[in-house]
Amino acid sequence: MNLESVIGITKKRLFWPLFTFGIILLFDFLAIPGFFSIQFRDGNFFGRPVDILNRGSVYAILAVGMTLVIATGGIDISVGSVLAISGAIVATMLGSGFEAKIPMLLCILAAVGVCTIIGCWNGLLVSKIGVQPVVATLILMVAGRGIAQLITGGNIPTTQYQPFTYVAGFIPGIPLPTSVFIAAVVVISALLVTKKTALGMFIEAMGINSKASRFSGIKVSRLIFMTYAFAGLCAGIAGLIACSQIKAADANNAGLLIEMDAILAVAIGGTSLAGGRFSIGASVIGALILQTLTTTLYALGVSPLALNVVKALVVIAICLIQAEEFRKKIAEMVYRERSVKNAKA
Amino acid sequence: MRKLKINASQFSLLITILLFIALFAAGSVKYPNFFSLQVFCNLLIDNSTLLVISVGMTFVLIIGGSGIDISVGSVIALVCMASAWLCQNTGLDAFTIMGLMILLGAVFGFVQGIFITYLKMQPFIVTLAGLMLARGLTALISENTITISNKTYVTLAQAKIHIFGTGAYIRSGVIIALVVLATAWFVLSYTRFGRNIYAIGGNEQSAILMGLPVNRTKVAVYTLSSMCAALAGIVFSLYMLSGYVLHGQGMEMDAIASTVIGGTTLTGGVGGVVGAFFGVLINGTIKTIIMFQGTLSSWWTRIVMAALLCIFIVIQRLLSMKSIEGVNSKKSNTGKLGKKTGSAAKQI
After folding, report:
1. pTM here?
2. Is residue A64 part of a domain?
């Protein structure tokens, strides 16, 4: 393979995220014996890879919503709080008994519905009133946990209702965790909508130049509104999984700083925070990278808080690789060295 | 006839000040012991940390280019923890430790600034990495609380500075915060550096064309912000006399909220530290009122703060829309404001 075609591959959209993912997996393979071992017990799969998929599904769902918001040139830092609200609603409505107070489907619909409405509120502020996205979503980031506390009455409601634990666990007879399927449905429907309709292209066009897009007839503000509503919907769904994982809704700590992880997943996936070109697939890989990294470090015995150091370094490294300016500087340096060598020869 | 002109940012500052007075008055009417100098002094004492980081945040927000620094809360935790650890495990003098901490902040901010300016990385992502790095380093030092028992620290923390002629007092942290505030106000209003910041925030492209040292100023601003955070960390360590991993969690958002309520926009070029000061005071007053009320939970502070933030943002938007219409009809100065008329899509 000649040099040009190698360089050509590195320019492919999914190359860098997949490359990073591959390196981390390779490291796991070499450094941690038994990292990839999967056991089959009680009709379910267990093991670190399954765990990564299960835990990573929350990140993946959030990352899908966040990707679209970021592609429009926005950002949504309220998803962590919205996730807490979703959990609070579902746990409060289900009640603490073994039987559900209100049918589960209704609870889930209520939680996801409220979160979508919250997303609409964000969208309204950004698209109609023209507030900067960081500030607009900051409002709910600050208030959201208060609202969640309001719903739970300051307590941490727990739920014992069996079917609800299936959301993050296993439905009897299906060997993979349900959350993986939920994530898959979200990812695939988002992919279909953005790839099979012109919506994806519109969003990209808007992120690159919103004014030009408006002049060419794209309904910019309506699209922006929709992306924020969708991000709210995603946060609501992720909230159900997060709540089901611990069978409780902790308004203060559920999804604390998870918006940062979602943004990171998108950034790792290579979507620019300035908006424009996006790739949902790359963001999902970004989410998996994040979760694999976390699981790897837990396996190595790093404490959750110290984990942040490694996460930060990885983020910086990944962003450096992806930064146009940095690559250009490196390329310049290589070029200069080569020309010096050539001159000497 | 010339009309009395108040521009949008001054108007917004005026509303902020009036709101603070109204809130304080409301508290005074409702609760008999509220209206006293000491309550006001406590307001300063409890919020001196927030004030210092809000000052730094103001600089970062004014410089624009989607400038933001969300690492400050974690830097506070890092500084508290590092100084507590140094006090416990080395024989270093308290003032040497403080100097080291400021240096730490400066280096931290300088590196962030280099990443943002010269490698053109997003401020949000870079400072997000900074947030996690600082929090993680804090956890690496210790995951338990370390109390500070250094004599100088304790003396400084317990010193009551009485206000002349009254029984009220403030703490040493307040002095630091007020000095920072005054210095920042002077720098922003009267120095070349300060005016450069406004110019770059207003329109970076024309600032470059004017020959202003854009990159250097940007790096300096991020360095300054982290230095403020380090200083805030010192103030906070005097307030808490301990280092703990979760110190200052979410404080960056409080700082951004206070700064925005004070009239600084996230698009850059508009704002000032006086507004940030009143934004912080409003935050503090709401907390104090909820404390006096006694039965409301502390999270009501956040709900009220968010509601205020929301109202302020909408008012600012409406005002700036109005001024844009005015400007457009006069066909002048459309450069900066014209950008705002575009959809918000580009304005992170």
Report:
1. 0.83
2. yes
